[in-house]
């Protein structure tokens, strides 16, 4: 795979209403007591326009991903960590497939699943905004090692919903937004 992890900004991800209950309350972005992020990603669409950001913080129960997007078609969208921290190429092809260090198949409903990079669908509201908070079921150390492996990691949002089963990407369609995680 390729290498390269851009070195300066950050922000990635999206989100929608609460998809997963988070054990520990996490302060909203910008709040005075918001924990310092472990990673951030700036998210852009295929035309390069800014579409929001993502960040990962260390909650008391483990890492938590927060995604805020705009300009996204209302409805559900698949979202994953992709294997390469590179949003280049047509349709973000350089990001590769799902982050999958354990050689599994796609999806939590797949008996041979799931990829480490599989995440819950996010939902954009009628205004095209996603505000999602996702508790990640792994330790901060394991997540950090997976995200910041030799070729980095990207957050990718798709045109349609992920069915949590169809290999390799849940049938979620075209990649519509992407951001590269930067360590904080
Ligand atoms: Cu994806
Ligand atoms: Zn997957």
Describe the protein's architecture and organization:
The protein is mainly β and 184 residues long. The protein has a single domain, classed as Sandwich (Immunoglobulin-like), CATH 2.60.40. It contains one helix and ten strands; from the N terminus they run E-E-E-E-E-E-E-H-E-E-E. The strands form two sheets. Strands 1, 2, 3, 5, 7, 8, 9 and 10 form an eight-stranded antiparallel sheet that branches. Strands 4-6 form a two-stranded antiparallel sheet. The relative contact order is 0.29. Residues 1-24 have low confidence and may be disordered. The structure holds copper (II) ion and zinc ion (ZN). The site of copper (II) ion (CU) has 6 residues, from strand 5 and strand 8.
SSE order and pairing:
Layout (H helix, E strand, L loop, with lengths): L36 E9 L4 E10 L2 E8 L5 E3 L1 E4 L39 E3 L5 E6 L4 H8 L6 E5 L16 E6 L1 E2 L1
Antiparallel strand pairs: 1-2, 1-9, 1-10, 2-3, 3-7, 4-6, 5-8, 8-9
The structure holds copper (II) ion and zinc ion.
């Amino acid at each position: 795979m390729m290498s390269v992890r851009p070195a300066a900004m950050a922000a990635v991800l999206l989100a929608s209403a609460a998809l997963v209950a988070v054990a520990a309350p996490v302060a909203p972005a910008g709040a005075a007591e918001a924990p310092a992020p472990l990673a951030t990603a700036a998210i852009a669409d295929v035309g390069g326009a800014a579409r929001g950001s993502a960040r990962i913080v260390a909650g008391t129960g483990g890492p938590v991903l927060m995604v805020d997007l705009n300009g996204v078609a209302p409805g559900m969208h698949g979202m994953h960590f992709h294997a390469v921290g590179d949003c280049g190429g047509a349709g973000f092809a350089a990001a590769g497939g799902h982050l999958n260090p354990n050689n599994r198949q796609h999806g939590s409903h797949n008996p041979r699943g799931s990829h480490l990079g599989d995440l819950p669908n996010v939902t954009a509201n009628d205004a095209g905004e996603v505000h999602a908070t996702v508790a990640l079921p792994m330790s901060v150390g394991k997540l950090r090692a997976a995200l910041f492996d030799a070729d980095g990691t990207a957050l990718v949002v798709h045109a349609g919903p992920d069915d949590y089963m169809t290999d390799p990407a849940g049938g979620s369609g075209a990649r519509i937004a992407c951001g590269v995680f930067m360590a904080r």
